[in-house]
Design a protein that fits this description.
This protein is an alpha/beta fold and about 500 residues long. The chain folds into 3 domains: about 140 residues, no CATH class; about 100 residues, NAD(P)-binding Rossmann-like Domain (Rossmann fold, 3-Layer(aba) Sandwich); about 170 residues, no CATH class. It is about 50% helix and about 10% strand. The strands form 4 sheets. The protein has a 6-stranded mixed β-sheet, with helices on both faces. A two-stranded antiparallel sheet has the order 7-8. Strand 3 and strand 4 form a beta hairpin. The protein is flat.
C-alpha cells in the first residue's frame, strides 16, 4: 500500500581480521615453538626406525612398538622445548649466525636428551608407561633431533624472512645520529629488507632540512620522546661516531619510552679493539683495549689445524685438481698455475699459487684490480672464481707454512705500500699469517671493495681469534663456495 513504510535492509559487512605487530611477533614465536615440537616428535619416530634399519649398532632382537614410547616422547619433547626457552632460543633475532645456532642447538639437545632419559627413568619406572630406552635408541633420537630441529628452524626463518620482505612484521625504526656511521647503518638497513625495519626518519643534534639516502631528517634530540610516540617507534639506533659519556646517557634517557628497544653503535671501541679484558698490574686493574689473541699455545693449535686441513684437503681434492688442470690446458694456452708475490706475516713476501683463471699474459698492460665481467678472465676461470676453486692450490702454501687456512687475505707488495700510507693501523692485519679465507672475505669485503672496511674486518679477526671462529669461517666459506653466494667473487 502507498504510504506503508518500506522494509529496512540491513547489510552485514564482513570484518577484516588485522593482526597487530605484537600479535604477529607472538605468532612467529608460537610457530617456532610448534615447529620445534613437531620436529622433535618426528625425530624420535625416525630414530626409532633407524635403530632397526641402520647398521651402526646391533639390531635389537625385539623392539617395543612405537606407541609404547609415547610417554618417553612427551618427556623428551617437553624437556628440550623448555630448555630451548631458558636458553633464549625463542628470543628471535633479526640477524644471526647459522653456525652459532647449530652450536647452540647441539648443546641444548645433547643436554636435553640426556636429561629426558634420566627423567623418564625416574617418572615412568615401575609404571604401566615404562619402556626400555636403550643407549642405541638414545643416540639415534639425539642425532635426528639435532638434524630436524635445525632444518625446521631454517624453514621457519626463511618463511618469516619472506614475510618481512613483503612488509609483514616490520618495526618502525628511528636513527639518531649523523655522519658516516649513520649513513652506513641506514644503507645497511635499506639494503636488508629481511631485517624487518621501516626507517621513519633520522634525528640529529640540531634540527635540519633534507634527507639521508632517501630518509628525511625529522627533528633534533629534544624531539625524540614526541617522535617515538607520534611515529609509533619500536626500535632506536644511536649511530654516533664520536660522543661524550654524558651525551650518550642523555640520549638513552630520551629514548626510554614504553617498549622501545635501544641499540648503540659501539664506535668508541670498535676502532680500538674487538675484545676488552681486565688485566692486573701489581694490584691495579687495567682495561686492555689492544691485545693480539693468537699467541703461545694457540699458535700451535692453529698450525695443527692448518696441517691437518691442508693435508686432508689435498688428498681428497687431488683428482678434481687434476681434472681442473686438464680443462685449463684445453681451454687456453699457457701454464696451469699462476704464481704471484704477496705479503704475509710481518710483511714478508711469499709466492702464492692459484689455478690460472685469466688469459696468459693478462697483466702485460699493468697490474690492476679484477672487476666484474673482466674480459681477461676465461670461461672456466669465471666459474672457478665464483666458486673460489681457483684458490684451492693454496693448500700447498698452507702446508709449507706460507699461509694459514684462515687469516687476512694477502695483498701484492705495491698495494700494501699504498694502503699502509692511506689507512691507519693497516699493518695490524700482517701480525698473523695470511689466509685462504677470512672474516673479511665471508662478509663480502673482497675484490673491488672498501679497503678500510676490509682492514677493520681483518683487525677484528686478529684481535678476537679463537678456534671456534676459524671453524665458523671455514664452514661459511664452504657454504658460500657451494652456493656461489658471495657477490664479490669475480
Amino acid at each position: 500500500m502507498a504510504g506503508d513504510p518500506q522494509p529496512v535492509s540491513y547489510r552485514v559487512e564482513p570484518r577484516s581480521i588485522r593482526l597487530s605487530n605484537d600479535h604477529l611477533k607472538a605468532l612467529s614465536t608460537l610457530t617456532l615453538l610448534l615447529t620445534d615440537t613437531a620436529m622433535l616428535i618426528i625425530a624420535f619416530a625416525i630414530g626409532y626406525e633407524a635403530r632397526e634399519l641402520l647398521p651402526f649398532f646391533p639390531r635389537p632382537e625385539e623392539q617395543p612398538v612405537l606407541a609404547r614410547y609415547m610417554p618417553t616422547i612427551v618427556v623428551h619433547t617437553i624437556t628440550i622445548v623448555v630448555m630451548f626457552y631458558f636458553s633464549q632460543l625463542y628470543h628471535l633475532k633479526r640477524a644471526f649466525s647459522r653456525v652459532e645456532q647449530l652450536r647452540q642447538v647441539i648443546g641444548v639437545v645433547t643436554l636435553g636428551t640426556l636429561l629426558a632419559s634420566g627423567t623418564q627413568e625416574f617418572l615412568l619406572q615401575n609404571t604401566a608407561m615404562e619402556a626400555v630406552y636403550p643407549r642405541s635408541l638414545l643416540f639415534y633420537v639425539w642425532f635426528f633431533s639435532v638434524l630436524l630441529t635445525v632444518f625446521g628452524r631454517e624453514l621457519h626463518r626463511r618463511s618469516w624472512t619472506l614475510l618481512r620482505r613483503r612488509g609483514v612484521v616490520r618495526d618502525n625504526l628511528l636513527i639518531v645520529g649523523e655522519g658516516d656511521i649513520a649513513r652506513k647503518i641506514t644503507e645497511h638497513i635499506r639494503n636488508s629488507p629481511e631485517l624487518g625495519y621501516t626507517i621513519v626518519g633520522i634525528v640529529t643534534a640540531a634540527a635540519q632540512e633534507g634527507e639521508l639516502l632517501g630518509y628525511p631528517y625529522i627533528g633534533a634530540y629534544d624531539d625524540i620522546p614526541r617522535l617515538i610516540d607520534d611515529r609509533q617507534v619500536e626500535q632506536v639506533i644511536v649511530a654516533l661516531s664520536d660522543y661524550r659519556r654524558g651525551e650518550l646517557v642523555e640520549l638513552i634517557s630520551l629514548c626510554q619510552r614504553g617498549k622501545v628497544d635501544i641499540k648503540v653503535y659501539p664506535d668508541m671501541f670498535s676502532y680500538m679493539a674487538g675484545d676488552l679484558n681486565v688485566d692486573d698490574l701489581g694490584g691495579t686493574a687495567l682495561l686492555t683495549v689492544r691485545d693480539i689473541a693468537l699467541r703461545g699455545w694457540k699458535l700451535s693449535l692453529k698450525r695443527a689445524l692448518d696441517l691437518i686441513g691442508a693435508a686432508v684437503g689435498l688428498v681428497l681434492l687431488s683428482p678434481f685438481m687434476l681434472i681442473t688442470a686438464l680443462l685449463i690446458r684445453l681451454e687456453s694456452r699457457g701454464s696451469v698455475f699462476y704464481w704471484q708475490v704477496r705479503m704475509g706475516l710481518d710483511g714478508r713476501p711469499f709466492p702464492m699459487i692459484k689455478f690460472r683463471s685469466m688469459r696468459q699474459n693478462a697483466e702485460s698492460g699493468g697490474q690492476t684490480w679484477t672487476v666484474e665481467n673482466d674480459e681477461r678472465v676465461t670461461r672456466l676461470g669465471r666459474y672457478m672464481r665464483r666458486s673460489n676453486w681457483d684458490e684451492i692450490p693454496q693448500l700447498i702454501n698452507v702446508l709449507v707454512g706460507h699461509m694459514s687456512l684462515v687469516g687476512p687475505r694477502p695483498e701484492r707488495p705495491m698495494y700494501v705500500q699504498q694502503f699502509r700510507r692511506q689507512i691507519p693501523d693497516y699493518m695490524v692485519r700482517h701480525r698473523e699469517k695470511s689466509g685462504m679465507t677470512g672474516w673479511a672475505q665471508i662478509n663480502g669485503f673482497r675484490g673491488d671493495t672498501s679497503i678500510a672496511q676490509r682492514t677493520e674486518a681483518d683487525r677484528f679477526y686478529v684481535e678476537n681469534w679463537s678456534l671456534w671462529l676459524d671453524i665458523v669461517i671455514i664452514i661459511r666459506t664452504i657454504w658460500q663456495s657451494i652456493t656461489r653466494s658471495n657477490p664479490q667473487a669475480y
